[in-house]
Specification:
Elements (H helix, E strand, L loop, with lengths): L9 E7 L5 H12 L4 E3 L8 E8 L6 H5 L3 E9 L1 E3 L8 E4 L7 H10 L2 E5 L8 E2 L2 E2 H6 L9 E14 L2 E8 L5 H12 L3 E11 L2 E2 L6 H5 L3 H6 L4 H4 L7
Parallel strand pairs: 3-12
Antiparallel strand pairs: 1-3, 2-3, 4-11, 4-12, 5-6, 7-10, 8-9, 10-11, 12-13
Length: 242
Amino acid sequence: MSEPLPEPAGILLVDKPQGITSHDVVDKIRRLYGTRRVGHAGTLDPMATGLLIILVGKATKASQYLMSQEKEYIGQATLGTTTDSQDADGEITETKPVPEISEQQIKDVLKSMLGDQHQTPPMHSAKKVGGKKLYELARKGIEIEREPRFIRINLFNLEGWSSPNIQFRVQCTKGTYVRTLAFDIGHKLGPGAHLSMLRRTSSGNLHVDKAYTLMQLGAMSKQQLIDCLVPVHEAVPSIALG
């Protein structure tokens, strides 16, 4: 009688497509690897793409460490339109004409947003208050006080400007809502804005260049799937695992 195969364990880097939730990706990976013990280290909203760190088997112990790493995103803020969710998935709440704006004005705004600060989580978010997710309350038309959280913006660069769209690159601490940064850009420049594109490119030393698409993973054999897993010790110091 053959020995049962050991449970797969390791870190899987997935390039999440647009239009599905992070939990959808977790469900897909559970089926591919044949194990329920799968989690992720940092949610991406359905409209966002890019690096989603999936933890398989014993690697789930590394969740807190990997979630705490600095993140990098490329994104786009569209001026002149604000939404209730601060991103393209929300309902439009206001439109304004976009005035003449120079690259230097935008760079000055981005520079003003660098450093340590407090950010209030948007109502349309998965953050829980009193056991309820904020977006569940928002869908009922309920808005409550939210406690601001500490964040740090270490880099905020202008990557392109063609009115009304601002392309940017941002490096920030965990828990930063990039759509709120886009909203704040619009507020500072005048006409308002919403986040119209977001792609996570890295988390700590893990980069989307090394990630697999769901289509690629779905075409792999069991052994190829195992070979895709990054051993935990290669990405996480042993001290972080206790």
